[in-house]
Specification:
336 residues; alpha+beta; Deoxyribonuclease I, Chain A; 6-stranded mixed sheet; 15 strands; Endo/exonuclease/phosphatase
Length: 336
């Protein structure tokens, strides 16, 4: 009996430790019970794992380690990636991505993706998901906003002296492609998204992904000293919240950006530029988000995640266990 108890205690400890992944946020204990719970993850998989050895297997393993219900993916390199991941993750998993040569945005789910509900925009894909053994449904979007003209680079450039210069990058006004503001505006006018907003009192609506821009909640007076002296209302998150009625789950759980920055960029990009000998510090920021809109849901815990093993920075990253240059974000919700 004593031997059995010791074995059980060891297994219990091992299981607990398996859940005690790298929270990157303070004192987070994400509950895995499926009873009235919903766990969401957003994960930029960095060229589908190509930047590390056995990257695809590592992506699958780190998703399974977090035990999410639904995962928003970014940087899906080909349409084969979803099938490769689900085959590694098990029969309960299914997925979908944008139908183009470089899909980029996609969704994995342990619940049924309802056929015929797919909706695509330039920066993402949305579907409706039927939760297993439940009458509940979820309207879910994965997005990857425009990466060019990255705003913090302008903010940390000493030649930039006016907010209008930073805003220009968020709009990409001088180019043929839309900026992050246009990406969010396209989402807001999408008919399926608008229906999701309309029905959000009964069907929760989630928008998750890599915004390639900080949050307007984070660049405030209290954090000015962290952001090259700037207070800046980053428009992508601001427009989504004000015009879409969405809530930033991480910042709702951790309202103080000074106490809990929650940076997701970057796990390994700590210095910029091979041509500069990786001697110039890379601005670190929170650019990956899980937004929701629903009176039925309450965000109970939220964390950033990068595994448990030490990560070597670029250019020494090839054998890292965690396969991404972004921290992923995991939020637990409770159905009220």
């Amino acid at each position: 009996m004593i031997h059995l108890l010791l074995v059980l205690l060891f297994l219990s400890s091992a299981y607990a430790n398996s859940l005690d992944l790298n929270t990157h946020s303070k004192d987070i204990d994400l509950v895995l019970s499926r009873n009235g719970k919903l766990r969401i993850m957003t994960f930029n998989i960095w060229l589908s794992g190509a930047e590390v050895t056995d990257g695809m297997k590592k992506i699958a393993r780190h998703i399974l380690a977090n035990n999410p219900d639904i995962v928003a993916l970014q940087e899906i390199w080909t349409t084969d990636v979803i099938g490769n991941l689900t085959s590694l993750m098990g029969d309960k998993w299914t997925g979908i991505c944008k139908n183009q040569s470089y899909p980029d945005a996609g969704i994995l789910s342990r619940h049924k993706i309802i056929g015929g509900t797919e909706s695509e925009i330039e920066s993402g894909i949305g579907v409706q998901i039927q939760l297993e053994n439940s009458t509940r449904k979820i309207n879910f979007w994965s997005v990857h906003l425009e990466p060019r003209s990255y705003g913090p680079y302008a903010a940390f450039n000493k030649m930039v002296t006016d907010k209008s210069q930073i805003f220009a990058g968020e709009l990409n006004t001088a180019f043929d492609w839309g900026g992050r503001v246009q990406n969010v505006q396209e989402l807001l006018i999408n008919e399926d998204f608008k229906n999701g907003v309309k029905n959000s009192s009964t069907i929760p609506l989630l928008v998750c992904g890599d915004f390639n821009a900080p949050s307007h909640h984070d660049w405030i007076e209290a954090t000015r000293h962290l952001h090259a002296g700037w207070v800046f209302p980053w428009p992508a998150t601001k427009i989504l919240e004000e015009n879409g009625g969405m809530v930033d789950s991480f910042r709702e759980v951790h309202p103080d950006p000074l106490e809990t920055p929650g940076n997701t960029w970057s796990t390994v990009q700590k210095f910029s530029g091979k041509e500069w000998g990786y001697s110039i510090p890379e601005p670190q920021d929170r650019i990956d988000f899980i937004f929701y809109r629903s009176p039925q849901l309450a965000a109970t815990a939220s964390k950033t995640y990068s595994g448990t093993m030490h990560l070597n920075p670029i250019p020494h990253h090839k054998e890292n266990d965690y396969p991404s240059d972004h921290f992923s974000v995991v939020t637990d919700f409770h159905f009220k």
